[in-house]
């Protein structure tokens, strides 16, 4: 016998005990995005490497060091998608869905980044992304944020997350700011952390994001981005805030919020929590009016966000917010003795499933004596156990045992679904 092959580090199995929490979150998201008129889009997990180089940006963490890139058998460079926005734009534009049109799209699925695995940070993780195209005005930025707030409310998370908001202006404003930031920081280059020193040349805005305390200290007296924001972006930002206020969505302005990806402009936002340690951001997004053009399409305004499902699962578990309905459970367990009762038990099980599809009905399979079958019924956690033997089959009935009280009574098989329905559901 050979040794067992293990999963890849940082790539997790979602086991049966966990998958119902995932379904609970995914169902909640699907319901919320549907209620805002968003349509699901599905695209491949693998794309040409160039898509992410151009879409995410050469100088981002993702492209510099996190991508799973490999050569196809014909020598073409392919990459496992590290995020969804570039693929979403590629797919929608390729299908002619973007130019001069309005689209509200969402997707869910695995993303891949070569990062150091730790709590809330994995190499295969899952995102739900929501992207809208063709709308340049701040009302759509607000709609997306209000949508996320509704989702938090639905999941019981609203008071456990904080909305951080910023505007990073148009490209020209950012360029002007970058120039003065670089000029200022260059004087203190030796005091910056290694990553920030490198970013001084590649992606200076990201230095604002640095977690290094020395770097943060140097930044205290650095020029501030808000002094460089253009009038149009400021008006956009003001209107966004007015709409959020009118909708009672609280937020804080974080002038250092810049986001790690190249494609953002104007609005950026994050929902953060204090309950997950360093992996504090559960949802992040913003406006990216330049991306469609950057990927070769006709200029199309766009705004969107992505949320990390692992972090949401962790958050719900940490806060004890996983409702019972999100835990898989058995409602009815059926035991039978003898061939005729076995056949009758199939019939009973199917008639219950037909009449009340929402119930989970477990028919005991694999034989065994009555006592053993009843033990399994106990263990299943079912509210009711149906017991069928030769006598019951002859009379066309079954015994129904209420597992919470131990009370047992006979029920005519033809009425079994209605009988159960009167207690369950
Ligand atoms: P971080 O600063 O935590 O690395 P990021 O800026 O790289 O996040 P985005 O690319 O904006 O993250 O992705 C959006 C969301 O996806 C994050 O807020 C987070 O919830 C989730 N996410 C990102 N990377 C990972 C990962 N490696 N493992 C689990 N979730 C992740
Ligand atoms: Mg990251």
From TrEMBL:
Main subcellular localisation: cytoplasm
InterPro entries: aa-tRNA-synth_II, aa-tRNA-synth_II/BPL/LPL, Anticodon-bd, Anticodon-bd_dom_sf, His-tRNA-ligase, HisRS-like_core, HisRS/HisZ, HisRS_anticodon
PROSITE patterns membership: AA_TRNA_LIGASE_II (PS50862)
GO CC entries: cytoplasm
Source superkingdom: Bacteria
EC number: 6.1.1.21
Reactions the enzyme catalyzes: tRNA(His) + L-histidine + ATP = L-histidyl-tRNA(His) + AMP + diphosphate + H(+)
PANTHER family attached to this UniProt entry: HISTIDINE--TRNA LIGASE, MITOCHONDRIAL-RELATED, HISTIDYL-TRNA SYNTHETASE
Name of the molecule in the record: Histidine--tRNA ligase
Source organism of this protein record: Marinomonas balearica
């Amino acid at each position: 016998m050979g040794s067992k092959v293990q999963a890849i580090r940082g790539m997790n199995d979602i086991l049966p005990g966990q998958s119902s929490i995932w379904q609970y979150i995914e169902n909640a998201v699907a319901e919320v995005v549907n209620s805002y008129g968003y349509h699901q889009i599905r695209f491949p997990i693998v794309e040409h490497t160039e898509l992410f180089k151009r879409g995410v940006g050469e100088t981002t963490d993702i492209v510099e060091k996190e991508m799973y890139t490999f050569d196809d058998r014909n020598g073409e460079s392919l990459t496992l998608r590290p995020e969804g926005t570039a693929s979403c734009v590629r797919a929608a534009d390729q299908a002619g869905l973007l130019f001069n049109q309005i689209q509200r799209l969402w997707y869910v699925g695995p993303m891949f980044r070569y990062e150091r695995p730790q709590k809330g940070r994995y190499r295969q993780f899952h995102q739900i992304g929501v992207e809208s195209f063709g709308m340049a005005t701040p009302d759509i930025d607000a709609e997306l944020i209000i949508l996320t707030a509704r989702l938090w409310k639905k999941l019981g998370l609203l008071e456990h997350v904080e909305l951080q908001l910023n505007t990073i202006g148009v490209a020209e404003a950012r360029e002007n700011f970058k120039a003065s930031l670089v000029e200022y920081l260059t004087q203190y280059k030796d005091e910056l952390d290694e990553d920030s020193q490198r970013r001084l040349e590649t992606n200076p805005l990201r230095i604002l994001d640095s977690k290094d305390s020395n770097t943060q200290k140097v930044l205290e007296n650095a020029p501030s981005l808000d002094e460089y924001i253009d009038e149009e972006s400021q008006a956009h930002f003001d209107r966004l805030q007015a709409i959020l206020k009118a909708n009672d969505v609280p937020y804080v302005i974080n002038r250092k919020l810049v986001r790690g990806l190249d494609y953002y402009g104007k609005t950026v936002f994050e929902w953060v929590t204090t309950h997950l340690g360093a992996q504090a951001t559960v949802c992040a997004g913003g406006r990216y009016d330049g991306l469609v053009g950057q990927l070769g399409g006709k200029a199309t305004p766009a705004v969107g966000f992505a949320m990390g499902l692992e972090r949401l699962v962790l958050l719900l578990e940490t806060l004890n917010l996983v409702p019972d309905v999100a835990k898989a459970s058995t409602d009815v367990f059926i035991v039978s003795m003898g061939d005729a009762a076995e056949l009758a038990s199939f019939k009973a099980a199917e008639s219950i499933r037909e009449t009340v599809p929402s119930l989970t009905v477990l028919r005991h399979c694999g034989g065994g004596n009555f006592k053993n079958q009843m033990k399994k019924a106990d263990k299943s956690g079912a509210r009711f156990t149906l017991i069928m033997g030769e006598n019951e089959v002859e009379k066309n009935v079954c015994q129904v045992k209420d597992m919470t009280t131990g009370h047992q009574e006979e029920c005519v098989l033809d009425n079994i679904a209605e009988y159960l329905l009167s207690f369950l559901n």
